[in-house]
Amino acid sequence: MTTILVTGATGFIGRHLCAGLLDAGYAVRGAYRNSLPTADPDPRIEWVQAGELGPDTDWSFALGSVKYVVHLAALAHQVAVNEEDISADFYRVNTEGTRGLAKAIAERPSIERIVFVSSIKALPPSGTQSQDPESVYGRSKKLAEEAIETELRAAASDWCVLRPCLVYGPGNSGNMARLLRLINSGLPLPFASIQNRRSFIFVGNLVSAIVSCLNHPGASRKTFTVSDGEPVSTPELLEELSKLTGRRLRLFPLPMPVLKGVARCGDVIKYVTGVPVGWDSYSVARLCGSLIANCSDIHERTGWTPPFSKKQGLSITVQSYPMR
After folding, report:
1. Is the pLDDT of residue 264 over 60?
2. Where in the chain are the domains?
3. 251 φ, ψ to 5°?
4. What pTM value is reported for the model?
């Protein structure tokens, strides 16, 4: 059987990806950091401890007899009053950790391709003249993409980069889960005046895109953005979730400066106490901002299309969420 190494295998996307790869007939080796999050890990997966992701991570054992690598492991979003307080960690883990993995792969010509799951945040913000991502997280991901291209430029091993937009699905504790909690609460929500368009991707669609890019010749040394292909506004998304949950939705308008002011208070509370309040600048930016992903390139080069519609993805997500 063809063996695939999945870094970040115990995370939200990693769990879904490992299951999808097993269903597709691959042998899966799952790399984890220090300890498995469950006492009963999937016995079909060969688990290997890789330690902390960084420039000095030893990949020699994990990469043995591997044909493909899917790199998911990363330092995810954190909130800080001053980005400089967390920038070193992002670059050490996301950029230099990815560079170290790429170097290790370059020394093993038997590895045919690495699929690196980056982020749409690696793109500069839309509607601006900037050429740089707007956040330290996005910049660390962009530099990680460049590191893979640089380290594998002269190597036999191939690469493909995927930039997913916001990923949702069963088991995700991010913004979609926050919206479901808000709907479940029955409280009036201050989002009626938001006029945005935002792309999302159901985790099943992302898994499908990853599997499609493992060995497709059209994905060779390419970078693709991926989404469900159906942008939606925040009020429209809330309406869809409300219908799927059977809960009444009550929206009222609140000026954006007020929303952002409350979010900054959440930033400070988390920074001072270390306790997330569920409402911060990062969350508000995702709820209120616009970000549309164009996935025509991956379709033209590989023929990939999302197997799940947005409605199907939301329905599966809602069914997994405990509504009271």
Report:
1. yes
2. 3-164, 169-199+228-293+302-324
3. -110, 145
4. 0.92
